[in-house]
Amino acid sequence: MSILVHQIKGDTVELLFDPTVERLEIGENLLLTEAGSGEGLLTQIIEFGTFAYPSMTEEQMRHMMELSYSPPGGTMHVYEDMGLLNAENLELCHAKIRRRVRQDGQWEPWDGWIPTRNVAVAKVSDSEVHRQCVPQFGNPLRIGTGFAGVEFAIDGRSYEKVNLITSAKGAGKSHLAKVLLLQLIEKRMPCVVFDINREYARLPGVTNLVPGENFRLSVEDFGVAPLVTLLRRFGLPETSAMNFENTLIRQVARNNNARRERRTPEFITVEGMISWAESNQFYPGQSEAARAVNAAIRSRLSYVENLGVFARNQGEVASLQSLLEQVSARSGALVIDLATLSTFAREGFVQAIVDAIKRFQPRSDPPKFPFLFFEEAHLYVSKEGINDIVTRSRHLGITSTFITNMVTDLDEVVLRQVDNLFLLYLPHDADVRHVSKSAITDPETVAAFAQRMKRYHAMMIGEASGGYPIVFKVDELKDIDVAGETRYSFGDNTNQ
Ligand SMILES: Nc1ncnc2c1ncn2[C@@H]1O[C@H](COP(=O)(O)OP(=O)(O)OP(=O)(O)O)[C@@H](O)[C@H]1O
Ligand SMILES: [Mg+2]
Q1: Which ligand 1 atom sits nearest the alpha carbon of residue 167?
Q2: pLDDT at residue 24 above 80?
Q3: Entry pTM
Q4: What domain range includes position 262?
């Protein structure tokens, strides 16, 4: 292969090549094997540039030095092959040193060793990179293809815990999330998707849950804390919220007692709570304060009632625990449609569902904990909420995948916990700098790939790639209706 080492600066190798002879791509891997010793460096292409041809004297000096240590047929030979006269065609390529490769082919972390300039440069196939780096536990999730069409699969086990998919708008994040979701469903893993754009509902194997239509929860299943969050979002003042919370906690405790004593608990409804407010039960008495608190609670409860999220009778109750058990026992995904809910309502609603998921104890053996997909989580989960999910997911067993084009809205705490990063085209420096805080890789690598990523391609790095940045083309979703419900006011009039 006619590629020459120009120079090595820090952990970057500058290589010279003739683009009319060699086709190189960003993300491809090149092995530099030192003549004689057989020791090697594995490098990955991160950038191309034009080559400013050095002055003749400099060139001649370099020649002389090379001649002094090159064995016959070494570097000189390559120069002659390429023909110095064609030097103006040469391009420069920057490749980052990733591993040291021993004579016996073993890959090791790079320890600073560099070869002499007298090296043979060869492409390393993606199958070799996958074999060396990608951990395999026998649960392949196929997500795309590498260079030369090599299949790229990560292992389900190393996908577990915390994942981030990020890119600019429209670069293919949700598509990649769907590819992952369908692979998990195929592996019979239970999944829950928080869908804000109604784009997951039509995937095979999913149960679409639409609040107010086929998805109403009981007040008790929803939980006291999420309900208080919901009322606060609707502007309930702090003292009233405390009165509300205490009263509801007492009623839930009475119901739990009744269950223990095998008596029928009272079915709590929003309508019922409105009548509690009307009879001043949240703050007893006739004082001004009592009237104000009960009235404040009453008005917020009527907003909540209008959401249509709560069951009005036992018959309407969709039990999240049993829905989770169903998807855990067979396979499939619960897709929770957040599109119908107002921005105010989303946070409490999602909190209720996440709380239920945290409490969920799968009966399957081995236990299959849910895989959660959050589309633009910051729109409906508070920063504390996201931090809590991320920091506790290891303990709880759940896996979260955050999908966002507003990566700067994610806390550094979250980024530092990320096990796998999936990066599609991400042109803006501020986003790149923020993603680099993930501690998974260096800023240069993130910038190099994110800002030069081809259409429908992604770079992934993390547990699932053994810490090696792997560039791949995301699989298509053939024969699957993935259309989101993008609505337009202007029609497509090109055929008229
Ligand atoms: N690997 C792929 N193969 C074929 N089509 C793809 C692929 N990735 C994305 N697409 C298509 O490109 C379009 C944009 O993809 P997608 O909706 O996933 O982007 P996004 O990053 O989620 O966008 P947004 O920021 O608006 O949510 C979609 O029509 C999708 O079907
Ligand atoms: Mg999307």
Answers
A1: 21
A2: yes
A3: 0.88
A4: 220-307
